[in-house]
Amino acid sequence: MNFIEPKKFIKKFELLDFPQPNIIQLKYPIFLCHGYGGIAGLVRPALLHEPCMLLRSHGIHAFAPNIVPYAKIEIRAEHWVEKIDQIREQYAYEKVNVVGHSMGGLDLRYAISKLDVTDSIASYTSIATPHYGTSLAELVLTTPDVLRDKLGEMFDWFGQSIFPNAKSNAVAAVEQLTREYVTEEFNPNTPDNPDIPYYSFSAAVGKGTEQPLNPIYRFQNQYIHSQEGENDSFVSVKSATWGTHIQTVPLSHMEQLDIQVSKDRTKYLHHFWLDLVYNLKSNGF
């Protein structure tokens, strides 16, 4: 029979001087922009709500609003600018650090380039954004026209049901995520602003890595790998790299949102979001 030494046992109950999360002081607040989709809105207030609350637990002023989940980049960008103006006016912020997840990163690039929002933006960070498109979008668009139209109608109905303030256009949004559209239309016509720093995080799990992946996403993960290489089951590492690339994180596209994260992988999620914040802090933002 094994006995635990009394000192080792009582050590587990030793109180820390400061058991609360460390306070991270940033110069500007963080404004989180979600990507395509809104299914998670059925079980949480916003797609990026959980990461937002994690940041708030560290004393960071963070916001994760909702906008139309299925719409073209131009429409979504206008909505983000409205939300940025709203919180700046409400809290008297000079600027915000914008962080875009997935399609949200394209929305923000468009807003910075086209919508005269430069004076409101301190820095730009993208997470698993398809800066060069994604072969997954092309795969979705190979669905037979009748089925694709029906699915589009269903997503549009759902999008307008949960966010009635704007018209959804699910199929048109997917078309803007293809490699051809992003590389040949979006990128040439949406130049970066030289006065704003651009940072990016990519992610990789599943095929080609040692990171686990939910079996639900195995097919698309392997498909993207065959077309583009390592990926997070939605966007490849290559496509997600833009501006100053900070790191490739071992989290799937959904895990980055704190969705379907197993207990043993929570540490990776927290490390990722704090690395993002510390990058901003170290650069004076």
Poorly predicted ranges (pLDDT <50, ≥5 residues)? none
Order of helices and strands: HEHEHEHEHHHHEHHEH
Number of strands: 6
Which strand order spans the largest sheet, edge to edge or round the barrel? 2-1-3-4-5-6
The fraction of residues in strands falls at 5-15%
CATH homologous group name: Alpha/Beta hydrolase fold, catalytic domain
How confident overall, as mean pLDDT?
90
Structural class: alpha/beta
Largest sheet: 6 strands, parallel
Which percent range fits the helix content?
Answer: 40-55%
Radius of gyration: 20 Å
Terminal CA distance reads 56 Å
- Overall form: globular
How would you sum up this structure, described in words?
Helix 4 links the parallel strand 3 and strand 4. Helix content is 42%, strand content 11%. It is α/β, with parallel strands linked by helices and 285 residues long. It has a six-stranded parallel β-sheet with strand order 2-1-3-4-5-6, with helices on both faces. It has eleven helices and six strands. The protein has helices at 6-11, 49-56, 73-91, 103-114, 135-141, 145-162, 170-175, 179-189, 218-228, 237-240, 266-282; strands at residues 30-33, 62-63, 96-101, 121-127, 198-203, 244-249. The protein has a single domain, classed as 3-Layer(aba) Sandwich (Rossmann fold), CATH 3.40.50.
